[in-house]
Structure to design on (245 residues):
């Protein structure tokens, strides 16, 4: 398999994982905001 | 409150977009790594993000351990290690060379634990062959036999040998070497063999 292609796929999935972690952080921040100011 | 609702809607939209992107590329990655990745449904469920991370980890682990993915620097380092090991092991018993060859082969395949374990047994065996009861005596012996005068080099070499004696891969089952650690261990082992080979020569063994 072409090394550049493998590296491309690896980087693609590393980026997806980083993005998921950012979104998890956003969800966590929002959840805290809601429980602090709005209540559940 | 309206602001919070807007932010939640925006977050849901971003998650949906990311899942759609993952679903559009997961098939090709499945074929490349030889393991079926799951299609993730776009539902409002907290666990989808964890599921996405698990699928990404499958791809990342598989590809990071692929030998084709050694960087140019690592490939050059591997070639240098091979060359250095061959010339040093020629001066020693044939089994030193055989073990180092096996360790290099495992390293090339991306089997870092296997490589580190083979290297470790060479390190352990070599240390038992060096004169001196305590490790400090062995280090002193190696450095003196090799007539190393300069303080800075003595210090560096002492540190390298001490690091080798603390080799954790054979004593701990919860430590797994990364590629850089397996490389580094093998490099230090070859350095030890070089000093040992000179010691053997000077003692006329």
């Amino acid at each position: 398999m072409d090394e550049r292609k493998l590296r491309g796929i690896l980087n693609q999935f590393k980026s997806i994982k980083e993005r998921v972690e950012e979104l998890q952080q956003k969800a966590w921040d929002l959840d805290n905001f809601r429980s602090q100011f709005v209540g559940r | 409150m309206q602001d919070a609702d807007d932010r939640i809607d925006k977050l849901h939209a971003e998650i949906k977009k990311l899942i759609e992107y993952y679903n559009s590329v997961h098939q090709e990655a499945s074929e490349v790594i030889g393991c079926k990745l799951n299609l993730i449904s776009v539902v409002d469920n907290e666990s989808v993000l964890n599921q996405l991370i698990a699928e990404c980890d499958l791809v990342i682990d598989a590809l990071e351990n692929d030998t084709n993915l050694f960087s140019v620097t690592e490939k050059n380092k591997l070639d240098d290690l091979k060359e250095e090991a061959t010339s040093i092991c020629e001066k020693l018993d044939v089994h030193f060379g055989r073990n180092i060859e096996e360790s290099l082969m495992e390293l090339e395949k991306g089997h870092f634990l296997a490589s580190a374990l083979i290297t470790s047994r060479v390190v352990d065996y070599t240390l038992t062959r060096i004169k001196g009861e305590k490790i400090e005596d062995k280090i002193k012996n190696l450095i003196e036999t090799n007539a190393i005068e300069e303080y800075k080099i003595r210090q560096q070499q002492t540190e390298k040998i001490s690091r080798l004696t603390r080799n954790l891969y054979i004593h701990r089952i919860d430590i797994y070497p990364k590629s850089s650690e397996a490389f580094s261990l093998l490099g230090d082992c070859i350095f030890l063999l070089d000093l040992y080979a000179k010691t053997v020569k000077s003692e006329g063994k």
